Protein 1
Amino acid sequence: MKDNFSKQADGYAKFRPHYPVELYRYLFEKVKPRTQAWDCGTGNGQVAIRLAEEFGKVYATDISQAQLDHAQKADNIEYRVAPAEDSTLPPQSADLITVAQAIHWFDMEQFHREIQRVAKPQALVAYWAYSLPKITAEIDEVVLDLHDNVLGPYWDLEREIWRGQYGSIALPLQNKEKRDFEYHSTWTYEHLEGYLNSWSSVQHYIAKTGTNPVPAYLQPIKQRWKDPKKLVFPIFLYSGVV
């Protein structure tokens, strides 16, 4: 298990993008009854808090206590420090299992066994992630260069699973389908910088070199930034039935 986000848990909670209403509507239309859900790799609980509006009970697990310390609370959410592969949840307890921006870190064979144990018959499993944001051609080019070249050696190997839009993940689900969504927002320069600083590769870079490459590398963008700037995060989602 790799815990790449405890150190920057506060920034993760503040600066990571959310997910659109259309994505949740798509999931909820597929799940009845909505008794219990499991949000796996919940991080700061942004998906769990949304599920709690529709489900009687939400289990939300993560390996990072620091992340859970920043999670949004609700009376019907039970947060647990646990790996995806050994959730400690009751058997056949979940009508919906979600994984947002995290499944590429899992041991897929063990996670599949845990899904089969925790899921109710015909439960829905959905996992998704967002790609790099689209802002302007100039900014996108700088962010991509930072991602690929400056930070390239500092990404974990699991990043390649994400780069392939989860096409290599072979969870044996029934009626599996892929859908695309978009998250639209307006960010200040400070929000963009905070988001980039939440990347695990930036933390690896700092640990290795003692310096943070983000502020200096983005200085030309900062000087020309005019607030506000609209941006779009493309999202790819897979879902299927256990």
Note: Residues 9-133+157-184+232-241 form a domain with the Rossmann fold fold (CATH 3.40.50.150).
Protein 2
Amino acid sequence: MDAQETRIYAAVLITSVVLGVIIFFFVVSIIRQQRRNLELHKKNILAEITTLEKERSRMAHDLHDELAPVLAAVKMRINSFELTDDEDKTEMIKTTEHLDALLKRIREITFDLMPNTLLRKGLTGAVKEFVDYMSHQSKLEIRYQAEAIGSLSEQKTVNLYRILQEVVHNTVKHAGATILNISIHQKKNNIVLSTSDNGTGFDYEKKLSADDGIGLKSLKSRVEIMNGELFLESKKGKGTSYIFQIPV
């Protein structure tokens, strides 16, 4: 190899190295930017969900501690009236029945917004209470199994409970199922929440992209901020199965 060929070879080699370094730093920059975008996305989702949960807690408190006692006092006041006219008595009975229905609805809304059991007994206790409640309110047979799990942060406890709520409500409203199986257990360092039903099933990708796929998007968002994984299998006429794996 003469001197000119050596210089050409060296120039090509240097150029290749420089291009390689530039490409390397370009790829690293893209990866870092994607990570920053992902972290920012998670922070935004977390902020939205945190704000939503605070608002739910506030509404539940207002309904339970302020509105419900006022309505109960109104009912007691109405029942204390001594009426002699039969029509007035009939109207009073109807009014108290409406108040009873309203108080019942307030309790249901409060329970849905923020069940006190979730704070007192933790995830498995709150789920048990919710499952019992939904079993009485719908024709769906819910089979629930839970094993002892490690302590979870309040954020993860609330998010897992909301995930289960969403799955159960979707099953009741849309699945056409008669049986829903729910299982919660700990597998090594993961909390595993699994559900399966015998309903009609659905097209996951189509449902997720549609305007009415808000519930599925909420599930994905809550799993994402907990650094968990969501596995879903659903086929037309063969039911739907969810598996949520959340690190402790």
Note: Residues 91 and 97 are 10 Å apart (CA to CA).
